[in-house]
Amino acid sequence: MNHAMTANNPSDLPMVSDRLSRKAMRHVSERVIEALLFAAAAVSVLTTIGIVYVLVSESVQFFQHVSIVDFLTDTQWTPLFDDAHFGIMVLISGTLVSSLVALVVAIPMGTIIAIYLSEFAHGNVREVAKPILELLGGIPTIVFGYFALLMVTPLLQKFLPGLPGFSLLSAGLVMGIMIVPYIASLSEDAMRAVPMSLREGSYALGSTRLHTALHVVVPAAFSGLAASYILAISRAVGETMILAVAAGMQPNLTWNPMEPAATITSFIVQVALGDLPHGSIGYQTIFAAGLTLILITLMFNILGQWLRRRYRENY
After folding, report:
1. How does residue 10 score in pLDDT terms, banded at 50, 70 and 90?
2. CA 229, 230, 234, 235 torsion: positive or negative?
3. pLDDT tens across 199-211, in order?
4. Residue 252 has what DSSP assignment?
5. For the whole model, what pTM was predicted?
6. Which residues contact 78 (CB under 8 A, 6 or more apart)?
7. Can you state the angle between helices 264-272 and 281-311, rounded to 10 degrees?
8. Which of 1, 62, 207, 241 could form a disulfide with 284 if both were Cys (CB 3.0 to 4.6 A apart)?
9. CA dihedral of 163, 168, 174, 177, whole degrees rounded to 10
10. CB distance 274 to 38 below 8 Å
11. Dist CA 169 CA 148 (whole Å)
């Protein structure tokens, strides 16, 4: 009875109508924002699907002419010569050796910097040092390449007289310097996310700041540290310009960092800048090499996800 009277009251109808109208408009705007966010997220997924599709479809044509056994076991990589060989292990060895040298430099240095910024640096020092450190990651990689070729290699040759002008050692060292900001910044964020109560508990037991950092904070933040290391590995494996400039482009099956060698990415650049006709077996090698690189990176990312789930701590 009262509802009927309210609905029949002409003075109340506009008020109810305006409120419903605003609610409907808010609902529409939320739907539009949700659609835009979904579209933004879908771009990255669709881009990844497109890249994988191109690599797989072109690689299938490549493997119709080249045995996958020869691809994995041949010890020579001369796809552009008349006597063609397609041993991808030659490029994988250069990629892994240069990445290992880079990680030997970057992981200890980045972790030490992260511990200092998180546990020891004053707030003002942290606010200045961290942006400067991250600025290092914004320098174009071609600049790092010439730095390795013109500065680091001559310096190394003073201590290692037999070191050639192009080497995986020089390129790997500079690549390690380049990825230090990735490890330092992400690791510092992971350490600062550790609850202060854990530190206070350690201090209450008489531990020093260094002991607390190494035995409480670092283990508690290990899942974040592992994620930063995996990201650094992916960055090192996919690096191109430093290796193309400083490591040389000579396909050479070697595990010695003091020798020149070609990597997967530097070979792709070499072929992509050439004049090979599209569809030729030489041109299709870049897709087989790219697919190999994607699989290596995927393997490291799966390992990183496993480490994060294995050592993740909930506070």
Report:
1. low
2. negative
3. 989 999 888 989 9
4. -
5. 0.81
6. 84, 85, 251
7. 150
8. 62
9. -120
10. no
11. 10
